[in-house]
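Margin note: ligand = xanthosine-5'-monophosphate.
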Amino acid sequence: MEKVLVLDFGGQYNQLIARRVREQNVYAEIKPYNKITPEEIKKEGYKGIIFTGGPNSVYEEKSPRCSKEVLHLGIPVLGICYGAQLIAYLEGGEVCKADNISEYGRVRLEVKEDTLFEGVPSFSECWMSHTDYVKVLPEGFEVTATTEHCPCAAMSNGKDIYAVQFHPEVTHTVYGKSVLHNFLFGVCKCKGDWQMADFAKEAIENYKKQLAGKKVLCALSGGVDSSVAAVLLHKAIGDNLTCVFVDHGLLRKDEGDMVEKIFKERFNMKIIRVNAEDLFLAKLKGVTEPEKKRKIIGEEFIRVFEKEAKKIGKVNYLVQGTIYPDVIESGAGDASTIKSHHNVGGLPSVIDFDEIIEPLRMLFKDEVRAVGTELGIPADLVWRQPFPGPGLAIRVIGEITKEKLDILREADAIFRDEIKRAGLEKITNQYFAVLTDSRSVGVMGDARTYGYTVALRAVTTDDFMTADWTKLPYEVLDRASNRITNEVRSIGRVVYDVTSKPPATVEWE
Ligand code: XMP
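Resulting structure:
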């Protein structure tokens, strides 16, 4: 199988690079720069190497650097941002910090004729994020692109080493896809015959071998991620997989029954439903701080699993449906912590299983859906909107009570119903209600009311790393607002959240 190595120097977009390569039907795997030697790279038979960006400056003592040998293995290399500067540094060029040319955001790019820019117009928009830049090129290299402030926005040795200061992996770089395509196919001569189906096939084969005769427990929530992880594992080890579905009382309206039914009846899987509402609500009593809520729920989840596992007998592995955005936003590697997603950062350090398996850890949501479809999971489940592990706990702002959860469940069900009725389920990628902790005064039947404020949130996104608020038609918002205030007694006001991510996140907590 053809594959490309993404050598990780600590940038925010490393997985995005791997994903962009996979989108072009070439398998990409990421390795930290200090976890693979030039000999190992050679032995693996990579068709190309991509150096990622990173937050450091090449001259800092602790900067991540690989051996210069990596550039001379006879395998084409593409450096991106920090990766580009590192190539210049390793090859004897000069990198400078100059605040007056720091570029951040959309910048006009001018490219020269070069294999990397085949089909890219002379002028186009690219996305930059740098203060350092390549001031003196290494011998044998030529500038192949510039911007107004950056004298070397791209360079190459005309043979097998290419470097770009901008980020071809982000969608704001209009011809970024072409640049990566030219590297993969024009320079590395890849064939592009890898498919997402191969991912599922290979994962099933690997787990068949790795988990032969072992007992495996899966944390099933009924969301897309854990469902795909569970079905994948079920295909590999059949009844050695037991799914535990913890109903923490923080689910949406009627969700618990539905999840149980689907997996028992449609997939014929071993599933145990644990009703743990009282336990979770007791643990969450009086807690208002979002990170604390997440940690408590994450920890209780594991405790409940441990207990179930003990009833089953010896369990060797625990499967979780963690996907890549959960990993990066929980501050794995060098990225900084935004929130502790419950299936990553919230894990207690001491647990009773030998190991945790996360088959989807490297995939983005849409890739998970593609795997789900490959596995034959019905579209209505594969296309379910995501639902966070901590459930409605992070959608009830402030203290959580059963009463507030019930209020939110009703409002949320109405909002989702209106979206469905309007046929907008595929227009918006995630939509839900949030019960805020603010109350406001209103008037109903000549009497003063003092009810909760509910916020409606709908976002449009393809990877959940960034998201736009969805411009829902006014009529839909109007109907939802009317029904919520009429049908849910304690809600006195409905507002619509018009914030994108960044600066906000999708969930409120
Ligand atoms: P944020 O709020 O981080 O959400 O912008 C991005 C996506 O992740 C979901 N989300 C979670 N999923 N465990 C999960 O499995 C969590 O703890 C968690 N927190 C947020 C969120 O619903 C959105 O789809």
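The chain has three domains: 3-187, 196-382, 397-496.
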